[in-house]
Amino acid sequence: MNQFPIKPRTSAHFRSNHTRNTLALILAGGRGSRLHQMTDWRSKPAVPFGGKFRIIDFPLSNCVNSGVRRIGVVTQYKAQSLIHHIQHGWSFLDGRFKEFVELLPAQQRTEETWYQGTVDAIFQNLDILRRHEAKYVLILGGDHIYKMDYSQLLAEHVEKEADMTVACLEIPLAEADAFGVMGINDEWRITSFTEKPANPVSIPDQPDKALVSMGIYVFNAGFLYDELIRDHDNRESSHDFGKDLIPYLVSRYRVFAHRFSDSCVNMVSGTPYWRDVGTIDAYWEANLDLTTVTPELNLYDEDWPIWTYQEQLPPAKFVFDDDDRRGQALDAMVSGGCIISGATVRRSLLFSHVQVCSHSIIEDSVILPNVIINRNVRLQRVVVEKHCILPEGLVAGGNPVEDRKRFHVTDKGVTLISPEMLGQRIHHVR
Question: Residue 178: which CATH number?
Answer without folding.
Answer: 3.90.550.10
